[in-house]
Amino acid sequence: MKKILLAATAMSSIALSAQADSVNICVEGAYPPFSSTEASGEVVGFDIDIANALAAAMGVEATMVKTDWDGIIPALLEGKCDAIIASMSITDERKQVIDFSAKYYNSPAGFIGAAGMAVDALDGKVVGVQRGTIHQDFMEGEYPNVELRLYGSQDEVYLDLQAGRIDAAMGDSIAMDDGFISTDAGEGFAFFGEMYSVPKYHGEGAGVGVRQADTELRDAFSAAVLAIRASGEYAAINDKYFDIDIYGGE
Amino acid sequence: MRFDLVLDNWHLFAGGMWMTLQLTMLSLLIGFCIALPFGMIRAKSNGIGSKLINAYVYAFRGTPLLVQLYLIYYGLSQFEWVRDSFAWVVLREAWWCALIAFSLNSGAYATEIIRGAVQSVPAGELEAAKSLGMSPFKVNRLVLIPSALRRALPQYGNEVVFMLHGSVVASVITIQDILGVGRTLNARYYLAYEGFLTAAALYMALAFVVVFAFRQLEKRYLGHLKISR
Prior knowledge:
The complex is a heterodimer of chains A (250) and B (229). Chain A has helices spanning 2-21, 46-58, 72-78, 92-95, 134-142, 154-163, 173-181, 199-202, 215-231, 233-241; strands spanning 22-27, 30-31, 35-37, 43-44, 61-66, 83-84, 99-105, 109-114, 126-130, 147-151, 168-172, 189-196, 206-210. Chain A is α/β, with parallel strands linked by helices and 250 residues long. In chain A, strands 10-9-11-8-12 form a 5-stranded mixed β-sheet, sandwiched between helices. In chain A, strands 5-1-6 form a 3-stranded parallel β-sheet. A 3-stranded antiparallel β-sheet of chain A has the order 2-3-4, with helices on one face. In chain A, a hairpin with a 3-residue loop joins strand 2 and strand 3. By secondary structure, chain B is mainly α. Chain B has a domain at 30-164 and 204-228: MetI-like (MetI-like fold, Orthogonal Bundle). Chain B has 11 helices and no strands. Chain B is flat, with a radius of gyration of 21 Å. The termini of chain B are far apart.
């Protein structure tokens, strides 16, 4: 028992000393616009900008370690990096192996519809969602007076929205922005109402993954997220990639 | 195995079953109304009308039902003049689009069944009717059509089962039929086996009723053609 405790103390002191001057951060590079790999081999994207901003807020130097998604948790556990910033959703399964900081984004869910549509006018209207998603659960739980139409894919939702068969659609804001609103087909349509991010329906979002022993590093990342939210740095990075604030609810 | 979740959602399956029955039976009825005159014309004449009917039959038998449904539901809605026309009242509803596609599809298959049945009525039956002094209209009404419909029974029974199973494609255009409910359970709880097995059992039960009913009809109306061995 004593040995284990000693080992744990030794490990956390390594982490602390690592935290003192630099951290290696595992990123992925194949999930645009969050992270993608340039022709030069450099990894760029929202995750990378956030990683640099967080490190700056913590007063440490960040080194990006490009790692395949499949091997990203083992890489953390083996010490090839000290943190994962790769749009990794906080889930109970992963929490059994690693630990997470507070979320740094939770792409919220939102309504889209013809320009001029409003949330208070939704009663009795027809709203399309993808079948079996968190968005169906959200609509059934929060908007019982809306007629739901279930689709096999998000693309079919857009087709019927354009055709006028449905008055609105509910779904992931980033997916709907990139897939429809920002495209030519989405002309005349817009987000309306607020952005929703209810943990009961939408989960906890994406956080910075760290080893379970590195509680101080975890807390430092959590604090840094709030710091860059407050300083406006987050908003600057956010606006570079997205039209909406993807942090989700506070 | 989580069949308790299937039981929790039995009302969805009940609704899905009603939707499947409704669509199948209505489209068979409409399809039959299309097929009876069309099949007669196909069997009796070779004029321009018969050729047009042949083109319709060829188009609907030559393409998959799913493609027909996509064309009617997503295809037509692409055109603004369709959306502005009076037809949009009907075409905007998934249920109507499915009914139209299924009716036209069933009509095409049934037309061929009736054509074949009419042509297989023995010439002797018609000559006998004529020799009794019946008018051509009366021959059709009292001899040709009843005899042809009896002969069409076994094939038409197949068409009914085919339509029942074909109606599953309705679930791709937001209709919650039996398969639609199975797909919802699959997507929500990752219950592929339980959801689809329940759907399969319901389709089997419906098909059993259809097969049984047609067997009884055949006994009743085709008994005289049975070769006793």
